Structures are given as C-alpha cells and as structure tokens.
Amino acid sequence: MRGDRYFKKLVFAAGLLVLTVITALFITLIIGSLTSIKHFGFSFVTRSIWNPVIEDFGALPFIAGTFITAFLALLISIPFSLSISIFSGELAGEGKISSVFNSILDLLAGIPSVIYGFWGLAVLVPVIRKIELKIGVPPFGVGILTASIILAIMIIPYSASLGRETLKLVPSHLKEAGYSLGATRYEIIKNIILPFSKSGIMSGFILSLGRAIGETMAVTMLIGNTNSIPKSLFSTGNTMASVIANEFTEASSDLYLSALIEIALILFLITVAINLIGRKIVKKSGGLK
User: Fold this and answer.
1) What is the Cα–Cα distance from 87 to 115, expressed in whole angstroms?
2) Which of 3, 16, 24, 225 lies at a 20 to 30 A Cα distance from 135?
3) CA 86 to CA 120: how far, in whole Å?
4) How far separated are the first and last CA of the chain, in Å rounded?
5) Residues 6 or more apart from 160 whose CB is under 8 A from it?
6) Tens-place pLDDT, residues 135-167
7) Which pLDDT tens digit goes with each residue over 67-111?
8) Which residues contact 132 (CB under 8 A, 6 or more apart)?
C-alpha cells in the first residue's frame, strides 16, 4: 500500500512538472509574440508576404511548407514503416536476424539530423536534380520533395519501432486459434494481428508526424529556404522550424523578432493540436480507455 502511494505521488509530481513546463513555454511564447500579434492580428497566418526590409510579415508560406513536407513524408514512410513492423515484430521472430535488424533500426533512430542532411546533399540532391532535368523543371535538387524524402527516412524508425512492439503484444492464443482453423500466415497478419494492433500502429504514425513537423536541421539544409508558398513538389520553400533557424539571429528589430516568435507559437499550438487529435483517434480505435 505504501508503495502504491509513493508511486501515485511520483506520477502526480511528474504530471505536474510536465504541465508546468508546457504552461511556461506557452506563456513565454505569448509574451514574446505580443508585438507581432498586436501589429498584424489574425492576418499574420493568412498573408504570404515575408519582407524583413519593410517589416511586413506573414506566416502562410511556412505553415504550408510545414504541412506539405510533414504529411508527404508520412505518406512516403507508411508502407515502409508498416512492412518493417510486420517483419521485425512477427515474421523474423526472436532470432539473430531479428536482433540485428532491430539494432540497425534503433541505430537509424539515433543518427543526428544534420547527418541525414549532409547525406541528402551528397546523395539525394544529385538524384533529384537528374529527375528534374528529365521532366523539364528547374534542376534545383533541393526542395519540398527532397526534404520530404529525408524526413520520411528519419521518421521510419520511430513508427516502425512502436509498431514492432505493438505487434509483439498480440496474444499468442489468438494467433494459435487462427492457425487451428486453417488460416495462413498472411490471413493471420491481415485479420488478427493488424486489427488488434491498429491503435499502437496509428500511435506510431502520429508520433512520427509530430517529429516531422518539428524537424529543423535536415529540412533547413534541403528545402531550399525560399519564403514563398510551394507550387509543386519540386519547388523550394521553408517550414516554420527552418525559417526560425535561418533568421532568428538576423532579427534586427523588435517586430521582426516578435514575428519569428509568433511562428514558434503557431508551431507549438499545431504540435499540441496534432497530439490531442492523435490521442482522440487512438482512443476511438480502442487503444486508450
């Protein structure tokens, strides 16, 4: 009983600490962005102008760039993440192959984003440039597609690892019952394992989306850094994180700095909203009670 009380107090203290940090971050961002909020109002999120010279700012290009790159990266990563989860969590079993494969997956998750960015510049950009030359678009190499591919590679280990652990939680008696009825391995995976694990797999995708939205260094190196709304997958652009990284040290006026902090506030709110929406989706699917 005493141990239960201590555990509950520890959980309460941890929750209170997290809530305090989140509240402090939110208040700090609000205070820092007040100048921009008072000057531009709601039009800040609907305007596509970003001109520090005349101090005229709008966040729409960066909001669009963030959502396009993040969701495109998620779409690219889903089939690979799901396949890796099924292979490592169900097909490979517990042998040496599974151990080596899981170690590689964990290693990929721990590689710094700047390394992915350098790899993208050295390997991926020339490939994309050749494709652009063949289809007749300006051969920048960098752009929305390049950044999205790198983001997809970066988030695959997260969703695949969570999916793998979720698949391992499927009760063995359910699978054995399916086999006893004459089901094939494919049918067991399709009709028993995946439906049972859908909430955990979806959680992995949502966490991956949050990682993609907030990624900074690799995207900054590969997206092209132009303050305009992308018109195609091969266009250059900017995300909210990349414009903050590029221009924060150059902010020479209070309004300029406040506009960048307001972008950080918008990014913070979007991240919180996605996590809340994701929690609701997972709860509806039966993952949370």
Assistant:
1) 27
2) 225
3) 27
4) 24
5) 80, 81, 84, 85, 88, 105, 204
6) 988 888 999 999 999 999 999 988 888 888 888
7) 999 999 999 999 999 988 888 877 776 667 777 777 888 888 888
8) 138, 139, 140, 141, 234
d(CA 151, CA 154): 5
Contact by Cβ (8 Å): 218, 150? yes
Q: Which residue has the tokens 């994180």?
A: 241
Please give the single-letter amino acid code of residue 10. Answer: L
pTM over 0.85: yes
Q: Which of 11, 76, 66, 47 is nearest to 274 (CA)?
A: 66
CB of 213 within 8 A of CB of 271? yes
On whether the CB atoms of residues 264 and 244 are closer than 8 A, the answer is yes
Residue type, 174: L
